[in-house]
UniProtKB/TrEMBL annotation, chain B:
Protein name, per record: C4-dicarboxylate ABC transporter permease
DUF112 domain location: 18-438
Transmembrane parts of this sequence: 20-46, 58-82, 102-132, 144-177, 197-221, 258-279, 318-341, 353-377, 389-406, 413-442, 469-490
Keyword annotations of the record: Membrane, Transmembrane, Transmembrane helix
Matching InterPro entries: DUF112_TM
Domain of life: Bacteria
Source organism: Microvirga vignae
UniProtKB/TrEMBL annotation, chain C:
PANTHER family to which the protein is assigned, alphabetical: BLR1237 PROTEIN, TRICARBOXYLATE-BINDING PROTEIN
Keywords: Signal
Annotated signal sequence range: 1-23
Name listed for the protein in its UniProt record: ABC transporter substrate-binding protein
Family: Belongs to the UPF0065 (bug) family.
Source domain of life: Bacteria
Gene3D superfamilies the record matches: Bordetella uptake gene, domain 1, Periplasmic binding protein-like II
UniProt organism field: Microvirga vignae
């Protein structure tokens, strides 16, 4: 439970140190006290200090205070149905799908890419194949038409360009 | 009086009325699509204004932006995808309300308060524009610096997860804001040689990632990805239960309208910052501040009013001096010039009738928000009855197109993904997301005004207190900071002595 | 198997795209890249040019905003486009700066110039209670170096360089009038009217409404001769006797090595576009300076601008 906050605090603290080191290397403006490195150094120091406090506070009794303040905000989850097991498959596909989208954007084209990514995503979440396919193909085509025709956003046609889409 | 009648005659033109109608629908539509902003809606309108008469073109922009800003709250509330940085201030609050089944109420109350705020701003614009604009021109970088400090102080107030976590989150936002070409020195910072990062981290994709993508990741990892997104929304009769709510929180509406207008009038500050500040003031002065963050309408009402009031306020310097208050009015000023209406104090004399017609359009557009906004909310609330996997797929689709569309670059889809993962990790560690956005919004304002001031004053820090307005603001900020600091120290010292009993609870 | 099919398909697509013999250029829609955001000045001019160019060429001309990196992203994209005439772009003043400032190796040699359609000369502005003319301003600055501060853009932006160039040409060190960097003209004007600085350098259209409002006055324009749109504003040379001029500019260009016939077709079309009444009324309404140069003179203009900005950047001590 307290592992994640500790880790986050420690990482952010280290990040702060890195930021300070990097900011020191920024050029100064001759004849001026405050240059482009001034704020990054302050920000780095802030991260360093408060990251450390945050990491340590979760290990010390201070935690009680933070939890008392924070946990009051928990939504009434009780009424929701019991969560199922995590969807690791869909998660992995989501990340790979987005990365693939970035690399194949121009070549494959928007409609093709998004249809595939979304269909598989839905199937992994238990939607039937034909249903998933229909939903994703229909919605991508609608979005594509909307953005190209009305909003003038240049979504790539990619492989489907010959179809005149 | 003559001018007023003339103005009435101008807006009674069917072309103007049809334009307002169509522009409103267009604004609603663009605003409700996640990732598409009011600025973009306005930019898309510009080529169409080439074929319109002057009044219609301004009417189109006014109506379209008012609708887009308000509609921007809809995806934020229902799906946790804030449409604008302004609605990001209260996205989590409204989303919590949606989860409780109160989404329609959240949107309805923010809609009504938006209308009131917008009307207030418009009236101020009509009555006092020239004198207020002159006051705004007295604000130099010294005053802006203190203003940014006041804005930053809100971080501690808007986060519900404790002081340290909120500050940590704020620093992350400030750090993100430093990425890119530094305006002051012209040297690239933290870009790691990437040309794409030279212009900084694009804001909209980062915001979409931090809210929407992290929400999807959360539901996948917690196994809730197939459960209903939120309870069915209670939609009662039109505005039923909302007017009592508004009258209950009338102080908030008033405060939001006033603060929003003031901040909107200052060029470069705008509705975004107004929304953040008023959300924080709402919490600070609330009798039930512990309810904030759990789906409580108070802050939403105040910030909603401020947001739209700021929108009207931004026109004050734009009309009087041609100095745009925000991106939308910057575009509008261009259109004004093209139509031969040159902004300036003389506009109020030479083109009085035209100007009053424009003001009336402001009133009409804000009143038209009620029926249009309500229809949009009703229609949009149905989205939540779509099964979750399908809904998430469509959200994903819009996140991707929205991130791409802002700069037409694939790089921003990557930005969205990275920030989605980052925000998910941070919230798992108990660090709130909202202050990050505040940091990104205020970072440049804070730093640039500090460095500009220091260059002007040759590095003399006391210069921040030498100008009268700056001095007052500065002392206010110092007081603002010393109060929680003192109470925090007292709390810690008390806490140390009571550490044992606390642990037992 | 699947992969090969996809490759074949991709190749086929690529083939159909790249083959159009240039018999009848243009055969399909043209993309006009704008390196600045929608709604800004460059975007507005580009959209007007695009819609008129469309009438001339008979095929759609679509404006695409590729923003970021102070215009570097969009400029790079234009330079790297396939030189087939279907991807063109609007190039702006910043192109004359990148390689001097060391922010990008891009310069005008990476492009095929098509037409220059706008230049706006830089000007010197003060508060109405400020110095009565440029000569007095320069004398004051010389008398007490550092007392008068100027702004108008970021460090290394065109207004900064214009000011540095002016001081340099007047035989004064550039820090006689220190530059206060800001993010664009709005905050700079704000600093001027709130009495935090004394001088704002920018193009005249940017300050016109403030001048009309009586909040600002323009002392001089950095132009070889007076601007016909602002006949009352004297040139720098007239008042201060310093031979210095510098303009921001906008033009249409394609990537390097555009086929000669395509470039000719586009250049001819642009020559007609700038004569159209729609273009003229748009430019004069927005007070953009109408300055046309055909492909060849645009090329010459670019190399001259490159040299002048180089001088100013070196004077400002910003050259890499």
């Amino acid at each position: 439970m307290s592992k994640a906050p500790f880790l986050a605090g420690a990482i952010l603290s280290l990040l702060g140190a890195g930021v300070i080191a990097e900011a020191m290397r920024l050029p100064t403006i001759p004849g001026q006290t405050y240059g482009p490195g001034f704020f990054p150094v302050l920000i780095g120091a802030g991260l360093l200090v408060f990251g450390a406090i945050y990491a340590l506070s979760v290990r010390r009794p201070m935690q009680a205070v933070i939890l008392l303040e924070g946990e009051g905000t928990a939504p009434d989850e009780a009424e929701e149905t019991v969560p199922e097991r995590p969807f690791y498959g869909a998660l992995a596909w989501l990340v790979t799908g987005l990365v693939a989208t970035i690399f194949l954007w121009e070549t494959a084209g928007f409609v093709l890419l998004m249809s595939v990514v979304l269909t598989v995503f839905m199937i992994l979440l238990g939607v039937r194949f034909w249903h998933a396919g229909l939903v994703s193909i229909a919605s991508t085509i609608i979005v594509y038409a909307l953005f190209i025709k009305i909003l003038m956003v240049p979504l790539p046609a990619g492989l489907l360009a010959p179809l005149g889409l | 009086m003559q001018t007023l009648l003339e103005a009435f005659r101008l807006i009674a033109d069917p072309q103007v009325i049809v334009t307002v109608l169509l522009a409103s629908i267009f604004g609603l539509f663009v605003g409700a699509i996640p990732g598409l902003t009011a600025t973009m809606a306005t930019a898309l309108l510009v080529p169409m204004t080439f074929f319109m008469d002057p009044l219609s073109s301004i009417a189109a922009i006014v109506a379209c932006t008012a609708m887009a800003i308000t509609a921007g709250d809809i995806p934020g509330c229902l799906l946790r995808i804030p449409g604008t940085p302004a609605s990001a201030a209260y996205t989590d609050e409204t989303f919590m309300m949606t989860k409780k089944g109160l989404g329609a109420q959240a949107l309805g109350s923010s809609l009504v308060s938006s209308v009131i705020g917008g009307l207030f701003g418009a009236i101020v614009l009509m009555v006092a524009a020239p004198s207020l604009a002159r006051v705004a021109l007295n604000f130099s970088s010294f005053e802006y610096f203190w203003l940014a400090c006041i804005g930053l102080s809100c971080a501690a107030l808007v986060s519900s997860t404790g002081f340290v976590a909120g500050l940590l989150s704020l620093f992350i936002g400030l750090l993100i804001a430093t990425v890119g070409m530094d305006v002051i020195s012209g040297s690239p910072r933290f870009t790691f040689g990437s040309v794409q990062l030279m212009g900084g981290v694009s804001f909209v994709p980062a915001m979409i990632g931090m809210f929407a993508i992290s929400e999807i990741l959360y539901s996948l990892l917690n196994g809730t990805a197939r459960q209903r997104f939120a309870k069915p929304q209670k939609i009662t009769g039109i505005f039923h239960g909302i007017l009592p709510l508004i009258s209950k929180y009338r102080t908030n509406v008033a405060r939001g309208s006033v603060i929003g207008t003031i901040i909107g009038i200052l060029p470069g500050a705008g509705g975004d910052i107004a929304a953040w500040i008023t959300y924080a003031t709402a919490r600070r002065f609330s009798k039930e501040s512990q309810k904030f963050g759990t789906g409580h309408p108070e802050g939403v009402i105040e910030a909603g009013a401020a947001n739209n009031a700021g929108l009207s306020g931004a026109w004050v310097p734009a009309l009087v001096f041609g100095v745009p208050g925000d991106a939308v009015t910057a575009i509008a000023v261009g259109v004004l010039f093209m139509k031969g209406i040159n902004p300036g104090p003389r506009l109020f004399e030479t083109q009085g009738a035209m100007l009053y017609a424009v003001f009336m359009i402001f009133l009409i557009a804000n009143i038209a928000l009620l029926p249009f906004g309500w229809l949009a909310i009703r229609a949009a609330s149905k989205i939540l009855s779509v099964p979750r996997p399908q809904l998430m797929a469509v959200i994903l689709l819009f996140c991707i197109v929205g991130s791409f569309a802002i700069n037409n670059t694939i790089f921003d889809i990557g930005v969205m993904l990275v920030f989605g993962i980052l925000a998910f990790a941070l919230s798992e560690a108990g660090i709130p997301i909202a202050p990050i956005i505040l940091g990104i919004v205020l970072g440049p304002l804070l730093e640039q005004n500090f460095l500009t001031s220091m260059t002007i004053a040759d590095g003399n820090l006391l210069a921040f207190f030498e100008r009268p307005i700056a001095g007052v603001l500065g002392i206010f900020v110092l007081l603002l900071w010393s109060i929680p600091l003192v109470s925090a120290i007292m709390q810690v010292s008390r806490h140390v002595s009571h550490a044992r009993p606390m642990k037992l609870t | 198997m699947k992969l090969t099919r996809r490759l074949v398909l991709a190749a086929a697509v690529a083939f159909t795209i790249s083959t159009p013999a240039l018999a009848q250029y243009p055969e399909r829609p043209i993309t006009l890249i704008v390196p600045w955001a929608a709604g800004g000045g460059t975007d507005a001019t580009a959209r007007t040019v695009a819609s008129l160019l469309e009438q001339e060429l008979g095929k759609p001309v679509n404006v695409v905003n590729r923003t970021g990196g102070g215009g570097i992203v969009g400029h790079t994209e234009i330079a790297n486009a396939k030189p087939d005439g279907y991807t063109l772009g609007v190039i702006t003043t910043e192109l004359s700066l990148y390689h001097w400032l060391g922010t990008s190796p891009l310069d005008y040699k990476n492009y095929t110039p098509i037409a220059l359609y706008n230049t706006d000369a830089q000007s010197i502005n003060v508060r109405p209670d400020g110095p009565k003319d440029l000569k007095e301003l320069l004398a004051k600055a010389k008398e007490k170096p550092g007392s008068l501060k100027a702004s108008g853009a970021n460090r290394g932006g065109a207004p900064h360089l214009a000011m540095a160039g002016l001081l340099n040409a007047s035989q004064m060190p550039v820090d006689t009038v220190p530059w206060i960097p800001t993010d664009g003209i709005t905050p700079a004007l704000q600093l001027l009217t709130s009495n935090a600085i004394a001088v704002v350098g920018t193009t005249i259209p940017e300050v016109q409404s403030m001048v009309d409002a009586g909040e600002v006055k323009t002392l001089a324009i950095m132009r070889a001769e007076r601007d016909p749109s602002f006949p009352n504003v004297p040139t720098v040379k007239e008042v201060a006797g310093v031979d210095w001029y510098l303009s921001s500019w906008r033009g249409v260009a394609g990537p390097k090595d555009l086929p000669a016939d395509v470039a000719k077709r586009l250049s001819d079309a642009m020559a007609k576009v700038v004569q159209k009444p729609e273009f003229k009324s748009f430019m004069s309404a927005r007070k953009f300076g109408m300055d046309y140069a055909d492909a060849q003179s645009f090329g010459k203009f670019l190399s001259d601008a490159d040299e002048r900005f180089g001088t100013a950047i070196k004077a400002a001590g910003l050259a890499k």
